[in-house]
Amino acid sequence: MRAILLLWLLAIGDSKPYEPINAMDYMSNYDTMMADRPASRRGLDRPASRWGDDDNDIDDDDDDDDEDCPSGCQCFPHVVQCSDKGLISIPEKIPEDTRMIDLQNNDITDIKENDFKGLKDLYALFLINNKLSSIHPKAFKDLGRLRLLYLSYNLLTQVPANLPPNILELRFHENRISRVQKEAFKGLRSLNVLELGANPLANSGIELGAFDGVATLYLGISEAKLTAVPKDLPSSMTELQLDYNKISKVEIEDFKRFKNLQRLSLGFNQIKSVENGSLASIPNVREIHLENNKLRKVPPGLSSLRYLQVMFLHGNKINYVGVNDFCPSRDSDKKSQYSSISLFANPVRYWNIPPTTFRCVAGSRGVQLASNFRRK
């Protein structure tokens, strides 16, 4: 069941993290969420209404009058929904059996020490699009079962201290974080998805040891101020997104630690060169994005990547494609055929590319070609 939960998280993680989420989508995945709970508690307190018997449905018109529901919010079994309410602080009297709190699109400026006191069963906390600038170091002390924490679209300048230890998905997209301090994520050994994109984060702002002990599978630092691939990222990653930065080159040391990497996104940077041997360090990669950069040739080493299926190179300055740039000389060396190679919006004369160049591509539509030159 943990594998199912991870696939669900990664599917959500592939969507744009700064868009407001629909909490009802998470409610519909209640069974998946509860699969991660201890077996001794699983199924003993399953709510009625949306996830139980139809005859126990809640009348929404009475939610605001429920003395067990925070003022101005709507309450469902184990769910408190307070989005778009103009709140300036965390509401009081949140029921202790709450597992999901939706506080999106409010004007909350800070989180105090006791705002979530006693919420030991809380699973998901959504604070997207508020005005958060400070979080008390002990604000999460009771949230030992918290798995999803969304803090995107706020005014935070640093990663909060003492994050819940069992967190699975953590999002800080579009804040004002310019520094990730040493051991910022210490103890988060269950963390699978970490989103830090759209922050003014430069290479110098990532302190050595910032990701020590983290087994993150997905890491996003797109739309930041990176000028090179950071050297101290989690070695466990299967997906790394660094699009829309100012990275100018890929060096042989950049990916040596990431043997499990399967998806690499470096589109919309300023990359002029990929050092020979750089991509050989990620032998299990399935998908590489290098579109909209300044490459003048196909990156070396693609033909040695046995499982590579998607290669985006459109919008570069590539003017030549060699017959062995994508495919190995022996067919048996390629374990997975390409499903997509994009080379459009490059100055290469596509009619000069030998057809055998794409001998390891599945189907006639697997290659997208175009030219900036016209026949005269």
Describe the protein in words.
- With 376 residues, the chain is mostly beta strands.
- It has 2 domains: 1-173, Leucine-rich repeat, LRR (right-handed beta-alpha superhelix), CATH 3.80.10.10; 247-376, Alpha-Beta Horseshoe (Leucine-rich repeat, LRR (right-handed beta-alpha superhelix)).
- The protein has 3 helices and 18 strands.
- The longest helix has 12 residues, at 2-13.
- The chain is elongated, with a radius of gyration of 24 Å.
- The chain starts with a helix and ends in an 8-residue tail after the last strand.
Global outline? elongated
Strand order of the largest sheet: 1-2-3-5-7-8-9-10-11-13-15-16-17-18
Tell me the span between the first and last alpha carbons: 61 Å
Which CATH architecture of the largest domain is right? Alpha-Beta Horseshoe
The number of helical elements comes to 3
Class by SSE composition: mainly beta
Low-confidence stretches: 1-18, 38-65
How large, in whole angstroms, is the Cα Rg?
24 Å
Largest sheet composition: 14 strands, mixed
CATH superfamily of the largest domain: Ribonuclease Inhibitor
Q: Please indicate the count of domains.
A: 2
Tell me the total number of β-strands. 18
- Helicity range of the residues? under 10%
Order of helices and strands: HHHEEEEEEEEEEEEEEEEEE
Please indicate the percent range of residues in DSSP E strands (runs of 2 or more): 5-15%
Mean pLDDT: 86
